[in-house]
Amino acid sequence: MMNISSREYEQLAGFIKANYGINLGKKKQALVVGRLHNVLMQNNFGTFSEYYDYVTSDKTGSAVVTLIDRITTNHTFFMREADHFAYFRDQVLPYLAGTVKDRDLRIWSAGCSTGEEPYALAMVLDEYFGPNKNGWDTKILATDISGRVLDTAARGEYSDEEIRALPASWKINYFRKSGAEKSVVVDRIRNEVLFGKFNLAQEVFPFKHKFHVIFCRNVMIYFDGPTKDELTEKFYGLLAPGGYLFIGHSESLNREKTRFRYVRPAVFRKE
């Protein structure tokens, strides 16, 4: 296995943090080497310094895409932190259904990984509105920094084991078989999710309209305090009054700095 010097690690980690907000800290050398070793070998780089020069000078952007795809974990599964989906269905949607006058619901799944979260939200929306869904725009924006996971998400194909925890009615109504041990999300649900690549560490968020709900769960654990505070403030500005922010149960907001009101564990609201 190739070695990485302290200087090389600090250089690469600093580049990732400055451009993508991901804070690797000082003790992830083994992780970085393990995930990038094959990339260096395949491209005949003798050192991580050579690889860093390659990444930072590549005008096509493909090198940095590979770097971020390898570094990020993207671990998720259907109905992760299921109480969030129940609260969204039982509390948030009734509020929005009664207050959004133009029937244009704007929901953002930020850090959507392989698509389980936005697809589950689309299923909740479909089940909630039922035959009254006509006339509502319930499309969900789903973004991630990794092109690799977005490709998987757009396909909407999952193993039978991956959808095992879903309600039986969902598996019947929202999936069709795709081979012996796989199922694919039906088109009418897939069409409700708009996938796109987006870097949460970029300075400007080019959204024209306010969101009603933002799900950004188990993403900010990779950011340091100042980066997380800055992103939280951006989310606040992007939400309509009364809008909700869902974060991961292992995450928290800085109560001394945030303008969000705490609602329940990992759920916050803009007043």
Could you outline the blueprint of secondary structure elements for this entry?
Elements: H1 6-20, H2 29-42, H3 48-57, H4 62-71, H5 82-99, E1 107-110, H6 116-129, E2 140-144, H7 147-155, E3 157-159, H8 168-173, E4 175-177, E5 182-185, H9 187-190, E6 193-197, E7 211-215, H10 225-238, E8 239-246, E9 261-264, E10 267-269
Parallel strand pairs: 1-2, 1-7, 2-6, 7-8
Antiparallel strand pairs: 3-5, 4-5, 8-10, 9-10
Helix pairs in contact: 2-4, 5-6
Give a structural overview.
The protein has 271 residues and is α/β, with parallel strands linked by helices. The protein folds into two domains: 6-71, Chemotaxis Receptor Methyltransferase Cher, domain 1; 82-269, Vaccinia Virus protein VP39 (Rossmann fold), CATH 3.40.50. The protein has ten helices and ten strands. It has helices at residues 6-20, 29-42, 48-57, 62-71, 82-99, 116-129, 147-155, 168-173, 187-190, 225-238; strands at 107-110, 140-144, 157-159, 175-177, 182-185, 193-197, 211-215, 239-246, 261-264, 267-269. It has a seven-stranded mixed β-sheet. The longest helix has 18 residues, at 82-99. The termini are far apart.
